[in-house]
Amino acid sequence: MKLGFSTLSLFSKTNDKIVETAKNNGFEMIELLAENPFNFNTPEALKSFDVLIHGPTVDLNIASINKGIKEESVKQMKDTIDMAENVNAKAITVHPGKIGRNDERLRKIAMEKAIESIGELVDYANLTVSVENMPSRFSFLANNVEELEQIQQETGCKITIDTGHANTCENPEEFFDLKNICYFHLNDNNGEKDQHLTLGEGTLDLNLLKKVDCGIIELNNFDNILKSKDVIKSLFKK
After folding, report:
1. Number of neighbouring beta carbons within 10 Å of residue 167
2. What value does the mean pLDDT take over residues 200-224?
């Protein structure tokens, strides 16, 4: 498995420090978390790695039925894509959006808005746009394989599978078997909510990781990233 980690675990550290940490611990990829105030202006430091970007999510909703919020959210994503290209990133992962009220009619409208926004980003970008599956909560779009596949097929985007998000759903394995997967976010939980636990500390069937060929360990703490890396090493030795 080609392996990297998310800078969620080193938030606010400089690119140089992130690269030093990655090199010292034998990682091949880095996913930069693009929430402000991240520094995208030192591409030289990142040249020896495959760079991926996690688009901003705080206060944004590309599926909003509020025209102003939707347009600003798409603008923020485009700004991030511009910065991503500055560091030669291969892909950007975006969240598909959510609805503010548990109403099936609004969900249908929000799906249309999400598809419109993601299609616009795919057309804008010179890198891969990849949409992430969400946890099993009604407010999140793409929290099932049907919606995720619909978005992919109608926009031409790729898919990022978050193993923890999948683990909150009835059949996690079906997410691992989807086509057009760009890469995986690797984390664990208790099967009920998104917790970003170290691999092996939750209920995720670790054997599913044998289906993964490209993974970003996405945790809040770098020590736990190293623990998860060891779990993956042990798994692939079997």
Report:
1. 26
2. 97
